[in-house]
Amino acid sequence: MRSLLLPSLLLALLPAVRADEGMWLFTKPPVRQVKEKYGFEITPGWLEHLQKSSVRFGNGGSGSFVSANGLILTNHHVGSGMIEKLSTKERDLLKHGFYAATGEAELKCPDLELNVLMSIEDVTERVNTAVKDGQTPDEAAAARRSIIAAIEKESHDATGLRSDVVTLYQGGAYHLYRYHRYTDVRLVFAPDVKAAAFGGDPDNFEFPRYCLDFCFFRAYENDAPAKTPHFLKWKTEGAKEGELVFTSGHPGRTNRSVTLAQLETLRDDAFPYRLEQIFRAETLLSAWADRDLENARRAKGMIVGTQNGRKAIMARLDGLLDPALMARKAASETKLRETAADAFARIEAAEKEARGFETRLRLLEGGDAFGSGLFGIARTLVRVADEAGKPEGERLEEYRQTSRPSLELELFSTEPIYKNLETVRMANALTFLCAKLGATDPTVLSILSGKSPDSRAAELVQGTALEDVEVRRKLYDGGREALATSNDPLVKLAKAVDQEARDLRKKAEATEEVIAQAHREIAAARFARDGDSAYPDATFSLRLSYGVVKGYADGKETVPAQTTFWEMHERSEAQGAIPPFDLSGEWKAKATKLNSLTPLNFISSNDITGGNSGSPVVNREGELVGLIFDSNAPGLVSDFFYTEEKGRAVSVHPAGIVEAMRVIYRADRVLAELTH
After folding, report:
1. Phi then psi for 6, rounded to 5 degrees?
2. What is the DSSP-derived secondary structure letter of residue 302?
3. Phi-psi region for residue 60, left (φ > 0), alpha (ψ -120 to 50) or beta?
4. pLDDT value at position 3?
5. DSSP 227
6. What is the DSSP annotation of 304-336?
7. How far apart are CA 490 and CA 367, in angstroms?
8. What's the pTM?
9. All structural domains of the chain
C-alpha cells in the first residue's frame, strides 16, 4: 500500500549523523558513536538483554518486561484502547483506573498481541534475486511479494515464531525479524485518566508536563504468568541531569530519505486531505459526545486520538510549508542527483501519476469512505474468503497464512461495538466521500443506493449483525459459499466495492515498486558515498537511540530537565482546576501525603517518533530509569530532521510512578514485584 494511506505518516530529511541522532538497528548499533562521545561501550550481551526485554504492542506502541513473571510497563495512552474495551457503563476503568490486588483479578484483554524480537536475519540477496531485469512494475511487485511470503512462511514453519520481512533503507536491504508472540495479555494496573493524561489536548506535545502516563499489563502462557528471564531492573532514583540514557522501542515510520517530490506530495495533497478529514471527525465526535455522558465515554478514545493527530499533522505541515526547510532538502539532493538523476526523475513521474488516483485509493481501499469498524469486519470476511484459495505468494499480505493468528485475534475480539457511534461515524464518512468524489460519481451513487449519507449509514449499521462474534465466526468458517449467500448489508457493500478497491491497490503497488526501485539506486549512491553506517528510516521495528537527560533554552527562558508533583498541583490551581487540569476526588483526598518534590516527568535528547510511546529509558547498567510518552513541540521537527537544540523526548520518571502507586493507588502487590 502507498505510505500515504498511513494516518500517522512521518517524513523527514536525511542529514549526516551528528549529535545524539539516530534510530539504530540492533544489528548495527552506534557502538563507535557512543564510545567516542560518552566513553561507554555497547556490548553484545548488553544489547541482547535490552532487545529481549523490549515489547512491541500490536496497536502501535512499545513496552518492556519489568519482572521475571511477565509484568510489562507501557504508557497509559498505549493501553487505553484495551482499558476502554474492558470498561462498561457501570465500570469505567478509564475514569476510575484499575488495580488487580491479586493475580486472579487481572483482566484478560480481548484482542491484544505483544511481540518480542528474538532474532534478525539479512535476506536482502534472496529478495533482490527474485526480481528480474526487464520485468514490468506489476511483475516485479508480484515477484517481490511472492518471495517475501515464501521467506516468512518457511521461517514460521521452521521456528513457530512470527516472521516478518522488514524493508530497510527504502529497499536497500531486507531483514527477517522473528518474534515470540503473546496473545494472552491481562491488565494489571492503570491510574485514572485525569492523572494519566493531565493537561489533555492543550498540554499535548508540550513541556513542562505533568502526566502519569503509565500502566502495567502481564503476558501469560498456558494460563499462567509468562516466564521472562530478560527484564529490566527498576531504578526508582532514575537518571541524573547530564546522564547518558538509551531508549529501546519501535518507532513507527519516518522517511528521512524521501525525495523533494515526495515531500511536495505530502505538503500539497496528503496532509491537507488528512487535516480536512480530522477537522470533520473531531467536530462531529465532540458534538455527539456532548449530548450524553455515555456518548462521551464511548467516544473518548476516538476524540483523543483525533486531537493528537490534528496537532501532529499541523506541526508537520507547517514544517513542509517552510521555504527554508524545502530549500535545504533540495540542496541535500544535489550531489546524489549527479549519480542517480534518472532515479529522482522516475520518482517525480510516479508521484505525479499517483496524484490522479490517490483520493479514490484512500477512500475505497483505505476505508476513509466508510469510517466504521463494522465495515472493516465485513471487508475482512469478504477478503479472507477470496484470498484463501490463492497460493501463499499471491495473497494480499494481511491474508497470508502466517498472518492468520493476528487476523483472527482481532476479528473475533469481544470488544463492545456501539451501533449508535458506528452510525455517526459512517454517516460522516459517507458525507466526506460525497465531498471528495462528488455526489454524482457512479461509485458514490452505488454506495448510497438512492439515500442520503445519514439514512444510508443508519440502514447499513442497524441492519448488520456483524457486532455478534458468533455471526462473524460462522461467516469466516463458511468461506466463500457463506459470504455469497449472506444478506448482511455491510457484507454486500464490501463485496460491491471490492473490485474497484483491489484495482486501485494494485495500481498503487505498481507505483510503489517504481519508487522502491528508484530508491534502491539512490541508496546505492548514498552507500557508495557514505557507507552503510547511517541508520535506516523507522519501520515499527526495534531500534536503539541514545541521548542525555537535559533541559534546553527557549528564547531567554531555560526549560528545566524535570518536573515534580508540586508543579503539577501548581499547574492545576493556576488553571482553576477545571478539565483537563483537574484531578480525581481520590487524588485530592490523598495528595497531601505525597512527597511533593518527587520527580514526575523529565526530558532527554533521545531521537524518537510515533511508536516509541511506552519505550523504556535505560542507563549504562541497563536499569529502567524512565518511560517515554511524548515529544515536546520543537521535537516534532524531528519528523523531518533531528535537532538537539530544543527537541526533546518526554518521559515519566520511575520515582513519580512509585510515589503515586504507593500513596494514591495503594498498589502494593505491583510495587513489591517491581522493587523487591
Report:
1. -80, 120
2. H
3. left
4. 35
5. P
6. HHHHHHHHHHHHHHHHHT-HHHHHHHHHHHHHH
7. 13
8. 0.90
9. 3-113+183-256+537-675 (2.40.10.120), 260-526 (no CATH)
